[in-house]
Every structure is written in structure tokens, then in C-alpha cells.
Amino acid sequence: MGRSKKFQDCQQVAGLRFAHACRSGGVLGLLVVFGCSGSVGGSKGSQDDGPYEDDADHEPGPGEPPRVDSNGALAGGLFDLKCEPKAEAAPIRLRRLSHSEYEATVDDLLRLNRSDQEELPVDSKGALFDNEASLLRVSSALTEAYLNNARQLSSAVNLANVLPCSPTVGASEQAGCARKFIESFGLRAFRRPLTTDEVASYKAHYDASMAADQNFEAATRFIVRLMIGSPYFLHRTEGLASTSEGNRQLGDYEAASALSYFLWGTMPDETLFAEAEAGRLHNAEQLGAQAKRMLADDKAKSQLRHFFDQWLHLEELENAVKDAALFPDFDDAVKKSMHAETLLFAEKAALSGHGGLSTLLSDSTAHLDGPLAKFLGVDGSFGADSETVELPRDRRAGVLTHPSFLTANAYLDGSSPVHRGIFVRRSLLCQTIPDPPADIPFDAIAPSEDATTRERFFAHQDNPSCAACHQYIDPIGFGLESFDAVGRFRDTDAGKPLDTTGEIVGTRATNGKFDGAEELATMLAKSSDVRGCVTLQMFRFGFGRKETTHDACALHSAHAAFEEGEGDFLALIGALVESDVFSTRSAKEESNQ
Amino acid sequence: MIQLKHTRRDFAGSFAKGTLVWYLARSIQPAHAQAAKKLKRFVVFYCPEGANPQNLSGGKYTLTSSWCPKGTGKEHPIDGLSPILSSFTNIKSDTLVVDGLSNEGFARSGQSGNHFYGLGTVMTGSRAPGDKRDSLDQILAPVLKGNNNHLRTSVHLGVGTGGGACRKQGQNIGCLGNPQDAFNRLFADANVGAVKPQGLGEGEKGKRVIDQYLSEYKKLHEMVGQDEQHRLDQNVESLVEMQKRIAAEGNAPVGASCDIAALKARKSQFITGGSYDKVAPQMVDILANAFACDLTRVASLEISRPYGASVYYPWLGVKESHHGLAHSTATATRLTALNKVYGWYFSQVAALAEKLKAIPDPDGGSMLDWTVIITVSEFADGHHRANYMPTTLVGGSRAGLRGGRVLHFGSTSGEGATVGAAQPMNRLFLNIANDLAGMNLPTIGEPSYCVAGKLPGVT
Q1: Strand spans (E) along A240-348
Q2: Position A21 confidence tier, pLDDT thresholds 50, 70, 90
Q3: What is d(CA B298, CA B294) in angstroms, rounded to the nearest whole number?
Q4: Does A60 touch chain B (CB under 8 A)?
């Protein structure tokens, strides 16, 4: 996966640890298996610097029991953050564009449609999303790719689309046009007006080119090349010139970028630039109005898909391998259809406004194309484009019953209540489960012909140490046992009738028993814990960083808006944009982790 | 390490004072350039989940003979090959198995559940990934490059996300994860009969571009906080590398064994998706060619990723996920399957070594004789153990490495022995940097792991 062949690294180490008894007991170290599914929104341990020391104080280490509060709820999630207003706002930041932001921004800036860009080397990815500012750096290989792209794209761009005059303008008007171009293209490239010095610097480059060969087109292309490899293009900057003490408001141009990269994953459009120039992007009302406009744009759809792709771990699907003997018809075409279905479904759910999260988690609408319909055994006429159909509620109840999710969270040859349960814990409830101890004897849950998956996994419940963590995980996954390793419905396992009963325990307000996917989906769809967690996930995605106590009040306000709309994603995004943490920064120089 | 850090600090300071020219002039002549007469190339090979399986029984870990060849005494020849090294037949005499080393930072971290923690400390020898140290390959890179400014300082290739053992300031160096892209990047001009780095070829214009960027970074540097300045230093360092390559353009010698015709024939023939068994051999081939054409002196080939819960090896007939398998060696069947998996990884090391062995080196012998390949993983074995890392060195005979041997540095050794105390890998890093590459570093990584100095008997 990873933009450049996106990988979903599981940056995060596997979840649970189950405690000591597993060391000597013969019970399956299943837990260790699912850690990968915890990468977004999970707890501790990213692959890079930072989180280790920070988290050491408040998260249990390997082999320690999971942390629970006095009501028995696992730690983590929005409600652990108390709204206690603090003076310090988020620090100044310099953020390199993520690969997907870079790719989209180049296209928008140059007005190219999916330009031919050199693949960028794989980025570090942490426990959050691919735009986690503190992890995005520039290596030699990336520098080379940027330089190559700058050279190649400056040749590929149609100058008529970016120059303020005709590319064949007469000699007498060339210098004037070049200056205007430097200012107008520079503003779009750097997402702010150029300083006088910068204009002069680029004009000097133009003049030098012209002096060398009198080639107006080549001279302007060279300006394009300089600008799209510039640090000011490659990085979003905030508050560089600020010398004030205490908190400061984002400048209007900074706010334009903050909006566009959150909502669109790319640079601001003409309207945002115009609003910034007019000084109309510095209060909640103005920002909210722009957010509303932007969410109606197609660019918001692709950005929402980018969010869902990561939050729901759909990128992991690309790596999914299945036993060809058991699933001979599982191929790349089917995987692609599965992936496309969920992205379309999620995008529609999010854009539906009121009740969007409930739709996402419990709706029975399917979007099936020919290959997927055939794979799932759904009768009817399906072609290359997907058709919208309603499936029976026992076969389809929200995204947890999508073949994409179920396939990505399963074994080579069987379903995995652990993978599926841990996803719910970490990504839907934002709960923290400690890492496994080092020395788990990972005795396989040897697949058995006469035991169901549930029966085999039930060994966890018999071993108190294993159960310490697995009590929170497996019983959720059991609810999805009607779906096999490739997300197909089944009503037996190992020749026996299925038992899909389960229970959610260890939450603030979502505890209860259920039978089957539909009831599980309904519980999650109504859960304020889940809405709180989605609030956090959207914040992390939108702000490119982990929340801090400073953000707590804003997060609770955003959550309230999300609740009021019964999971209205548009309301949630709007509330985050209108919050003070969106537009306020600290002037204090501070390490950002 | 210390010296490099020093350089970087000087650089940051000098930058702020606007003495960039001073830095550039200084960095053209690295302090160790004159000493780099021995080791010429260095390769890090990464595989996930530890490749030295240990047995756990009754709460005790014991060593297996999966990776380490059998023998008696603290030092013995490689007589029979172990299952994991079974493909090393033709490079047996080039292989030094260094048994009984530890990923010390990981061992002491209290983060034993965390694969990424182990990955962050293994090649940096650091106390924690957050120490922000450079990995050994990055410490060696400027020295092995010397004054050959046309070279890339290092090349990093990955298969299936590509590990992350090689680090700058503690952070994963991004690798090229797609064979076609890697080929294009390295051999872009093979189609016109010249092999030279892509992205250059515009001489004066290229210089102006980089000068402009550097001047902008300089301004930006002055306006951000210290933490962000460190990040920008990496951008600047890589631009300076490009600047040197551009300056050397036109005079860049092509490796004597560079087979242009073969490269031209390979153009656009790469599989860019697919399972590891399809992709990895292509990366091995690209890497061998990169050395043959002398495009770089330091590289990594990192296959797969830590924590392979969804990594499977159907082409080996192994059905369990890598992670699941690695966590239990309780039965002979499982251990055999795991040996098969690591045997496949190490067959890629053997393939690379054999290719380098077939390429004559301009200074005599084969390229392998002047190259050291080191095998690493985040752990020693799949139970997240930090002691008895699967450290195999291949090549380097003309640099002084004595192959065909097994050295045991653990307090115990041999199949069935209880896993004992081990020596920090930092000590071996000192052998490599100081004895093989001619550096003179008092410590590498966390200084306290280096107090016992380099290991005896390596050279």
C-alpha cells in the first residue's frame, strides 16, 4: 500500500500481551498475531523515535496486565482526556507533505491529471496516519525523487495552464509576464505570497536563463522546476515569522492550507486563496463556511476515502494471502472489488450526514460488481461497474461484515476472532491493550478438522493469564464467525452449527451480550465510546498528530457535535475546523512530540 | 558515530552562521578518507522475526542448530552447513558466523514485546530508537565513499515494505520498494549506453537548482526550532550529496565490470508486484549490478517487515504466518517449517554473495572479497529474544575478515545448551568499522555497550 506502493506497515506492535501463564501453558499465543491491525489509532510503539519515552509513564509494558479503571473499562479513548483548559496551544510545526499530499498537490499546482511522477521511497509510518508530522523526513532517495520529479514535471507542464500570459508572448512583455508568473505561481506553490526577496531571487534566475539563451519558455519552466522542489513547496510551514509571545492565531494563508490538507489532502483552491487574501479565514464562522463548501467538493470524497482506507486498515487487503487450495477463486480482481466496495460504501455513509457512522457500522447496502457478486454467490446481473443492492441483515451489517475487512482480518486458511476483535478494541474503541510478553510459546491453534474456530480459541478462556486480555477480544470476534477467511457467509464451521454469541466487556458504555454480526453492529453503531474514538481518529487524521491534553476541550466539543448528529461525519469535521485548536498555535519553541 | 554526530552539529551551527562553503569544503575530505583502504563495500541484509530459532521448554530457552553450524570450542570451522545456511555451499569459506551476540538496547529496554523497538536498536547499537543515532551502514557510508563524489552515499532496497534497520538519527531511511523503480533510478541511462545516476545530466542548471534549494533551506533553518532544524539537516545533507554528484558528473567512472548490454536487456523486465520469491531475486540482481557498475559502496536489502502476522510463504509450502510460526518451535515439524522460511531468506544472501564473488574487483580478487554482508533481524528469535542474534558476515577476506569459521561469544553454545549471556553487537561493529574499514571510533551506538571493546578473533 503505501502511496508508493502503499505498505501498511504494522508499525505497531502487537497488541496484547497475555500474561505469564501463557509462558508455560500450552495455550495459543494467538494474541500476538493481530498486532498489525492496531496500527491506526492504536496504543504504543511506533517504529520511530518519540513515542517510546513519552508513553513509558502511562502505558503498561509487556507482560503487565491491561489497565482498567474503577468501573472495569480498559484505558484509552476520548473519555480518558479531561477538558481542563490550558494555556499552551499546539507548537509551531514544519510538516513535510505526505506522499499522497505531494502527489495531489503537484497535480493541482501544475493542473495535470494524474501526472507521471517518480515513485517515492517508502515513508516511515507510525501509529497514526500517513501524515504524522513528526515522522515525515527527507532521505537521500527521497531528495533524488523530488529533484527528478521537479525536472520531469517542469517539462511536462502545459505552460498555457499556469502562465498569466501566452507562452508565445512578444519579447517586450516577457519580463512583465515572468514577474507576474513568479508571484502568482509562487503563491500557489508556496501556498502564501512570496516575500519581496523571494520574488527578486526567482526573477534573477529568470533573468539568468534569458541571458543565456533568450528562451522564454525554458526560463519559465525553470522557475517551475525551482519552485516544485523548494522546501516551501515540500513543507507546510506555520508561524515562521512569528516573534510574539504566547498563543497566536494562524495566518489566513496558513489557515487555508490547514483546511485544504485536512479536507482535501491537497493545496488550497482559488476560492481559499481569495478568502485568505481578503483576510477572511480567521474566525470559526469563516472557517466553518469554507469547510461546508469544501466538503461538497469531489476532492473531499477522495480525502475521506484516504481516511477510511487507513482507519479501517483496508490497505492491508493488498497484502492478504489465502490458501489457494481452499479459496481458488480468491484473486487480485476480487480483492480490488472488495476494496472498492468498502471505500464507496464508507464515502457514501460519511457524506450522508446525519447518522453517517451508524450507516457505516450497520447498514446492509452492498455495492457489488461482477467479480465480487460471483465470489460471494449473490445471484443477479452484475457488470464491471458496481450495483447497489440490499443484502439480508444476517449477511451484511455495516463495514465489519464487508468482505474486505473480514479478509484482511483473518488467517491464510481460516477466520480470526482475534484479528477482528482487536480491530474493534483498538480502532473503534481506541482502547489500549498492552504488548505481549516476549516469551509466549506460540503453540499454534493447530487447525483441527473436528473443532470449530470458536472451540479452538476458547482455550484462551480456560487459561486465566490468556483470558486477562483475550476476554476483551475473542468474544467480539466470535460475533463475526459467520464469515470465513475471505469474508464469505457460512452457517457451519468444521461441520458444526455456528455459535455466534458474544459479549462486549471492559468499556465505559458499550458493554452487553449479543448474538451475531447484526447485533454486534447495532451495539457499536449506538455506542458513545465508538463516537468518541472516531472523534479522536478524525482529529489525528486532520491534524497529523496525536491529541494532547491541550486538545481535550475541543475534542469533547467536536464529540458533542458528532453525537448530536448521531455520527454525522460532516458535523464532526466542521466542529474540528471551528475549534480553537484548529486555528491557534503556541509561539513557544518546543519539540513537537 | 561520534564523529559523524560531531560533523552534523558543526554543520547545523555553521549553517546558521552562513558558513556553508566552509562545511562543503570540509566535507569533501572526510576525516577517514585516507584510511579507507580496506573494506570497500558494506551491505545490510534484514529479515524479520529473528533467524536463530530457540526452543522453549519448561520455561527455559535452549539453542538449536537451525542457524549456527555445529562444532566444538569457542572457534571452529564451518564443517557442515546448518539448515538455514544450507544454500551457503559455495560461499562457506567466505562466511563468518558470529554466535552469541545481543541486540543490547533491545535486551535492556523493557520493550520486549515491541518488534519495532528491536528494529530501531539493532543496527544503531543504541539504547533506544529515540537516541536518534545513525546505523552502522550510515557510519561507514561516508568513509567507504571517500572522495568518490559521483557515488550515492548508500542505496536501500526493500521487498514487502523493507524492514527499517538502516537509520539516520534513529529514523528509518526510506527504501525503494519496487524493482522497476529501483532499476530506473540506478540505471536510468542504460538505454543510451551509459550508466550513470539519473537526475543529473543538466550540469549547470542542476547546480543552480540545488544552490537555490540550499539557500532556501538556510533561511528556513533560521526560522524553526531546534528539533525541526535537525530534521532539515537531513534534507540539506542529501542535497549536498546531490550537489557533489552533479559536480562530479562527466568524470564519473563506470565500474569496470558494469555490463551495459545486460542492463539494457533488463530494462522494463521487472515484476513489480508479487510475492517475495518473485521480487527478492530481482532486487538481489539490481544490487549486484549497482556494485558492478560502482554506483554506491553501501547498501541494504531488507525483506519483509517486523511482525509478519499476515506474511505467508505459500511457495515454500508453509501455511502458517511467519509471526505465528516464529513464536513457537515446540514441535519438530514447526521448526522444520521455520528453518525452511529462514533458509529461503538466507538463500537471497547467498545469491548476492555468489554474484559478487563472480565479479572481479579492480583491486584484485572478487568484489565479495572487499565487501561485507551482515545479516540482521530485530530479534534473535521469534520469541522476541535479544540474545544470540543471527549475525552472519559474508565476504571481506581482502579487508581482513577470516571466513569459514564460527565464533562463539555467548556464555553457552551448541544445540540443546541453555541460552546464556551474550555480547553486545556494538563490539562487532567496532571490529567492522575500525579493523575492516580503517576507522578509529572509540564507541559505536550506546557507549556503555562498548566498554569491552572490539571482539577478539574476527580478523
Answers
A1: 247-249
A2: very low
A3: 10
A4: no
> B223: which chain A residues are within 8 Å (Cβ-Cβ)?
240-241
In whole angstroms, what is the distance from residue B300 CA to residue A111 CA?
A: 37
pTM value is 0.88
Residue A68 β-bridge partners: A74
Q: Is any Cβ of chain B less than 8 angstroms from the Cβ of A433?
A: no
SS3 B371: strand
Cα B44 to Cα B9, B154, B303, B375: the distances in Å are 26, 11, 11, 6
- Let me know if A183 is exposed, middle or buried by CB neighbors in 10 A (0-12, 13-18, 19+): middle
Calpha distance B193→A470 (Å, rounded): 61
Smallest CA-to-CA distance from A227 within A302, A149, A299, A164 is with A149
Q: Which of B366, B158, B383 is nearest to B276 (CA)?
A: B158
Q: What is the spatial distance between Cα B413 and Cα B71, in angstroms, rounded to a whole number?
A: 9
A-chain CB neighbours of B231 within 8 Å are 94, 137-138
Between B162 and A11, residue with greater pLDDT: B162
Q: Give whole-number Cα distances, A541 to A15, A311, A545, B68, in Å.
A: 21, 9, 7, 46
User: Any idea what DSSP says for residue B417?
Assistant: P
CA distances from A164 to A184, A194, A227 (A): 8, 16, 16
pLDDT surpasses 80 at A348: yes
Lookup: cell for A121: 521511497
Of residues B169, B105, B89, B91, the one with CA closest to residue B396:
B91
Q: Decide if pLDDT at B193 tops 60.
A: no
Cell numbers 447518522 correspond to A355
Q: What is the C-alpha to C-alpha distance for residues A276 and A255, in angstroms, rounded to an integer?
A: 8
Chain B hits for A52, Cβ within 8 Å: 111, 117, 128-130
Q: Are strands B391-395 and B60-63 parallel, antiparallel or unpaired?
A: unpaired
Nearest Cα residue in chain B from A447: B320
| Nearest residue to A415 via CA among A403, A407, A423 | A407
Cβ separation of A36 and B310 shorter than 8 Å? yes
Within a 10 A sphere around the Cβ of B55, how many other Cβ atoms?
A: 20
Considering only CB atoms, which chain A residues are within 8 Å of B306?
10, 13, 47
- pLDDT at A13 (0 to 100): 26
Q: Closest approach of chain A CAs to the CA of B48, in angstroms?
A: 13
Report how many Cβ contacts below 8 Å link chain A to chain B: 281
Structural contact between residues A486 and A326, judged by C-beta atoms closer than 8 angstroms: no
Collapsing DSSP to helix, strand or coil, A130 comes out as coil
- Decide if B420 contacts B444 (C-beta within 8 A): no
Residues 6+ apart with CB under 8 A from A147: A229, B199, B209, B210, B242
The residue assigned the cell 473443532 is A451
